[in-house]
């Protein structure tokens, strides 16, 4: 700004009236000195200053345009993230997942390496007043109520998206943009984790929905510790729910891989150690006896670490007790095999 205020026109007028070459000057000793041509030098300086001022002005315009572009881009990112979160929550409430509803009265696996919870799955079958079984005990009133509730939730979600877009236009600088994005991601993560815990505690269909929900949000929260161990837990749930051996092995291996990455960053997480041990056990169910014995030591190591980090968690003690029982069973079986072998050799 100070450079622009220089009056170059006045300097040009002065240069026009100045002589291009000053007259010779006689020194006291009789020698004559001829001064250098100052006019040309001043013209060169003036042209250089004018060139610098023009470049500064253009640079200032480019910086201003770049700042405006960054603010617009930040506003668009905020709108897209908010819209994605609202759409994800709306879809999860409608429960539009490609998994068929399964009904089973069988209990969960009794393997010591599986999750500690077990019980019969809930069914949707009902019985009418006359004693006849119906395919669905849900009444028309319940369906209408659910439909009205979904429409109300959709309206609230749309209004939330519109509000988020209006708020995003009020951004002032990049610092405020980062604060808004961080706050938005934390709020969305908290809601996602609560919903994942609720679905994990439900029946088979809800566990499948919880797995798909976490899988859909992996790109956004792959660097969050609490998200990763819940994703691994969902892999463990899917390993229990499927009957195909290859699918069981695939789910267990994928979940174990997720926690191997997580433990490199968060070695002090009791949940990461606990579910890593469970997934190691599930994966060993499809391996050789020697490999299962080796995995048993890894299982106990991580369960002990989980108890050390979170001694108030009863599930870790339950898993450790099941492991001790299984070890005793294996040792007893090994002794029986040795006695039978010795008996046959003696015969």
TrEMBL record:
<protein>
    <recommendedName>
        <fullName>Regulator of microtubule dynamics protein 3</fullName>
    </recommendedName>
</protein>
<dbReference type="GO" id="GO:0044232">
    <property type="term" value="C:organelle membrane contact site"/>
</dbReference>
<dbReference type="GO" id="GO:0097431">
    <property type="term" value="C:mitotic spindle pole"/>
</dbReference>
<keyword id="KW-0963">Cytoplasm</keyword>
<dbReference type="Pfam" id="PF21033">
    <property type="entry name" value="RMD1-3"/>
</dbReference>
<dbReference type="GO" id="GO:0006874">
    <property type="term" value="P:intracellular calcium ion homeostasis"/>
</dbReference>
<keyword id="KW-0539">Nucleus</keyword>
<dbReference type="InterPro" id="IPR049039">
    <property type="entry name" value="RMD1-3_a_helical_rpt"/>
</dbReference>
<dbReference type="GO" id="GO:0008017">
    <property type="term" value="F:microtubule binding"/>
</dbReference>
<feature type="coiled-coil region">
    <location>
        <begin position="42"/>
        <end position="76"/>
    </location>
</feature>
<keyword id="KW-0812">Transmembrane</keyword>
<dbReference type="GO" id="GO:0005876">
    <property type="term" value="C:spindle microtubule"/>
</dbReference>
<keyword id="KW-1000">Mitochondrion outer membrane</keyword>
<feature type="compositionally biased region" description="Acidic residues">
    <location>
        <begin position="147"/>
        <end position="157"/>
    </location>
</feature>
<feature type="region of interest" description="Disordered">
    <location>
        <begin position="117"/>
        <end position="157"/>
    </location>
</feature>
<keyword id="KW-0496">Mitochondrion</keyword>
<keyword id="KW-0472">Membrane</keyword>
<keyword id="KW-0206">Cytoskeleton</keyword>
<comment type="similarity">
    <text>Belongs to the RMDN family.</text>
</comment>
<dbReference type="GO" id="GO:0005634">
    <property type="term" value="C:nucleus"/>
</dbReference>
<keyword id="KW-1133">Transmembrane helix</keyword>
<keyword id="KW-0175">Coiled coil</keyword>
<dbReference type="GO" id="GO:0005741">
    <property type="term" value="C:mitochondrial outer membrane"/>
</dbReference>
<dbReference type="InterPro" id="IPR011990">
    <property type="entry name" value="TPR-like_helical_dom_sf"/>
</dbReference>
<dbReference type="GO" id="GO:0045171">
    <property type="term" value="C:intercellular bridge"/>
</dbReference>
